[in-house]
Design brief:
Shape: elongated
Largest sheet: 4 strands, antiparallel
Oligomer: single chain
Radius of gyration: 28 Å
Length: 618
């Protein structure tokens, strides 16, 4: 049987409950490390949605760009709202059209400016700046028509296919974003009959209607400036894509593949109309019924084998169901658009953008997990997890010292495993290491290497302990501890061995004394590495970790970056006093009101970090 690629998606954007007015997500193509999506709202009851926001994110080093497009409400056109259109993304370039400021002062109140003053906008992710694509706009000097970018070269060359339409004519041009030159393509087009296009090396392929009854697939060769009709038929050629020498399309749910060198056409049986291709892989979704599981499938085009088939949507979300749409695929990443519907017809829907990798986990991850948690999973050890019952997310993230500037990581409830030097001996105890997730959430800085960091735009206010924030307003968040943590050598303490642990911190970060709970613990050890003391209830637990879990405590947690602090947490609607200490890699908690076997636990740092890095930060 073929190896099954793991697919553990994480939510990177959440629209929240939405009624008929939106917002709605749509994925942009994957380009290298970059993913993107648009956010739109309903413009009016019959005119569909309008895009008002474009989001780009580098999935490796977490750089985000959020671009607000200009919008215009035209009361003369049945109250239609216009926003960004013809959005093309092929790293490092993003190209789109947007409304311009009306010349008539009476219409200006209906216009809302975007982040950039341009009508045909070119954004470069390397600089974070946008400008007017003046050479493209010049293709219609009269200004009476629409200049539409319809395809960008995914190879990053900056070549762009442009459609210029007026009421009576339509023309295609091949232009370059860094040049004033634009070459007309000898194509016979009528206004309104162009569908889509794709660059395939030195050839451009597009689909349009040949006449009122037939549809055509055409190819333009730059070498000899000729246009050839490749296919014709009674149905439109849609979802054009390319990989290597092949071009793919869909007609009436039949996916076809054409070898551009030989002209041989192959029909791909069972592949869905929402297919996406990348390299030698094709992926698609299959919904087995309205309220039945949605399957994600990945097939190797060379061998024909399905190497992945698993459920990505369920029919039971609070009695409702989930619709999954395949958004984009490339560079080992799959982007899905999920819509969650409630059990009552017409109930609000919640849209999400999901990101998953098709990377293969290193076997060392499973060996490290089994060493500590296999007995828990088998019911042989009545104790809390060291990692968690199963992996939650597998990805490649930035690591400056790693191969290609990245490393393979696998998240669990409690932490993240990472392999920073895959060329080393996989049997080395430190071949798999533990991420500094607690430090990152407290500091608000995402570590992208030994000494490199990216400042997150949203601090981590997730509670360090207890239920999620909406049900747990009393517990402090990770960012709260920045005022008392030793992140860069500050806030260190002297040795306090034997002293009571009587410091307290509340949800607002106010530090006080708690003599009542302070009588329950005293400091038993001092760590000069970070300048902090360890309470006796934790010290006993740490000293027993090699025998209990098979790992030294410093490998698992690192050193403490705070003293111990008493605070409050809410679990299941009930408040409990809890002793919290933040370590470099994890969080330890002590709840005296719990049963002895559960009094000391490690916080769900892996869960929290995933939510903070991928969902809360735009």
């Amino acid at each position: 049987a073929p190896a099954v690629l793991p697919f553990l998606p994480v939510t990177v954007a959440n629209a929240g409950p939405a009624m008929s007015s939106g917002p709605f997500f749509a994925a942009l193509p994957v380009n290298g490390d970059w993913i993107g999506y648009t956010i739109s709202n309903l413009g009016c009851g019959h005119c569909g949605t309008y895009v008002h926001t474009i989001v780009l994110r580098d999935t490796v080093d977490a750089r985000p760009f959020t671009i607000h497009a200009a919008t215009y409400r035209d009361f003369n056109a049945n109250d239609v709202v216009f926003g960004a259109q013809d959005i093309q993304f092929a790293g490092p370039y993003l190209l789109w059209r947007q409304p311009t400021r009306p010349a008539n002062p009476a219409y200006i109140p209906q216009y809302r400016a975007g982040d950039f003053d341009c009508s045909l906008c070119l954004f470069d992710v390397r600089t974070g700046q946008a400008r007017q694509a003046t050479n493209l706009a010049a293709l219609d000097p009269s200004g009476a028509g629409a200049v539409r970018p319809v395809a960008l070269d995914a190879g990053g060359s900056g070549r762009v296919l442009v459609l210029v339409e007026t009421q009576s004519a339509a023309s295609l041009y091949l232009a370059a974003l860094d040049s004033t030159q634009a070459h007309p393509i000898p194509a016979a087009l009528r206004p309104g009959n162009f569908f889509s296009a794709v660059f395939s090396g030195a050839t451009i392929v597009w689909s349009s209607t040949g006449d009122h009854q037939t549809f055509g697939l055409y190819a333009y060769r730059e070498a000899d400036n000729t246009v050839t009709q490749l296919e014709a038929g009674p149905q439109a050629f849609t979802n054009l894509q390319t990989t290597g020498p092949d071009v793919f399309w869909n007609t009436a749910s039949l996916v076809s593949r054409r070898d551009m060198a030989t002209g041989v056409v192959q029909h791909l049986a069972d592949v869905g109309a929402d297919f996406q291709v990348a390299g030698d892989l094709v992926t698609w979704t299959r919904q087995t019924g309205r309220q039945a599981p949605v399957l994600l499938l990945v097939r190797n085009l060379t061998t024909g084998q399905v190497i992945q088939q698993q459920e990505v949507g369920q029919a039971a979300i609070a009695g409702g169901w989930t619709s999954i749409g395949l958004g984009a695929f490339g560079a080992g990443k799959i982007v899905l658009v999920a819509s969650d519907f409630g059990p009552v017809p017409g109930a609000p829907a919640n849209q999400r953008i999901l990101l998953g990798w098709t990377a293969t986990p290193d076997p060392a991850f499973a060996r490290v997990w089994a060493r500590a948690d296999a007995p828990v999973a088998a019911g042989q050890a009545p104790r809390s997890w060291l990692w968690g019952p199963a992996p939650r997310f597998l990805a490649e993230e930035a690591y400056a010292e790693g191969p290609g500037g990245r490393h393979l990581v696998q998240y669990y409830d409690k932490s993240r495993m990472e392999i920073n030097h895959p060329a080393d001996n996989s049997n080395d105890p430190y071949y798999v290491t533990n991420g500094l997730l607690a430090v990152e959430m407290v500091s608000g800085e995402i570590q992208t290497g030994d000494t490199t960091r990216v400042r997150a735009s949203v601090p981590c206010t997730i509670p360090v302990v207890g239920d999620p924030r909406k049900d747990n307003p009393v517990a402090p968040g990770y960012a709260t501890f920045a005022a008392v943590a030793s992140l860069h050598g500050e806030h260190q303490a002297a040795s306090r061995i034997g002293a009571p642990v009587d410091d307290a911190i509340d949800v607002d970060g106010v530090v006080s004394k708690d003599a009542t709970h302070g009588a329950l613990a005293s400091y038993a050890a001092f760590t000069p590495q970070t300048g902090h003391n360890i309470p006796n209830v934790f010290w006993t637990y740490l000293q027993g970790m090699p025998g209990t879990y098979g790992f030294d405590w410093t490998f698992v947690l690192g050193y403490p970056i705070t003293e111990g602090y008493w605070t409050q947490m809410r679990v299941g609607g009930k408040d409990y006093p809890v002793l919290v200490q933040i370590y470099q890699r994890r969080v330890l908690t002590y709840v005296p009101d719990f049963a002895p076997v559960w009094q000391i636990q490690q916080g769900n740092v892996g869960q929290h970090y995933l939510e903070w890095r991928y969902t809360l930060n735009p």
